[in-house]
Amino acid sequence: WAREMHGKQVPSLAWRKLKVAENPHRVRFSSAEEFTALMKAAHADLRPIILCAVTTGLRRANILEMQWHQVDLGGSTITVQHTKGKKPGSVRIAPSLRAALARTPAKKRRGPVFDITNFRRRWHAAVKTAKMDDFHFHDLRHTFASWARQNGADLADICEALMHSSVSVTMRYAHIRPGHDKTAFERVADLLTAQSTAQNAVND
């Protein structure tokens, strides 16, 4: 670019081989207790924003810029026009979020969905009051994915919900084990145990 666009001389280096190691993926998510404390500490206008983030997994920009024409309360969906991958998509509206959104009278459902007045200040105040160390707004997206994983969602399902470009991006949640699921090791062990029990019954 420097050479072709600006006529500048540049060293003859193997630029394509010069790579900087990526920062390790950060996955900080809220516990149920932390989330309760955060909602309690949050300003009334901030609570539906937090609820939207943790129930949809949407990014902050998609939430703060959301317009009412994107929301279909009857169909329980939110249409996202511009994702990080520049592709449109949609997310489901959880009953708790639907109830929160439905508090806005139908005649007032025009323009922005959320009141983002003093958003940054209110967010930092809520996190501080809830005593949540090293917790960012984007971590609510991680919370959505982590809670989904803990409750049995597979990585492909989470990838689709988060509108990731590929499941490789979603692999950061692979270490989180579903609370009511079994590992591959346990499944094979159970299978062999069942086979052994059945064989013993035949022999007896």
Question: How does this structure look, described?
Answer:
This protein is mainly α and 204 residues long. It has helices at residues 2-6, 32-41, 47-56, 60-64, 95-101, 119-129, 139-150, 155-162, 167-170, 184-203, and strands spanning 71-72, 77-80, 89-92. A hairpin with a 4-residue loop joins β1 and β2 (77-80). 45% of the residues lie in helices and 5% in strands. It has a 3-stranded antiparallel sheet, with no helix packed on it. It has 10 helices and 3 strands; from the N terminus they run ααααβββαααααα.
Question: What's the short version?
Answer:
The protein has 204 residues and is mainly α.
Task: Identify the notable features of this structure and list them briefly.
single chain, 204 residues, mainly alpha, 3-stranded antiparallel β-sheet, extended
Strand-helix topology:
Elements: H1 2-6, H2 32-41, H3 47-56, H4 60-64, E1 71-72, E2 77-80, E3 89-92, H5 95-101, H6 119-129, H7 139-150, H8 155-162, H9 167-170, H10 184-203
Antiparallel strand pairs: 1-2, 2-3
Helix pairs in contact: 2-6, 3-5, 3-7
Which strand order does the major sheet show? 1-2-3
| Major beta sheet summary | 3 strands, antiparallel
List how many beta strands DSSP finds.
3
Instruction: Please tell me what the overall shape is.
Output: extended
Look at the structure and give the mean pLDDT.
86
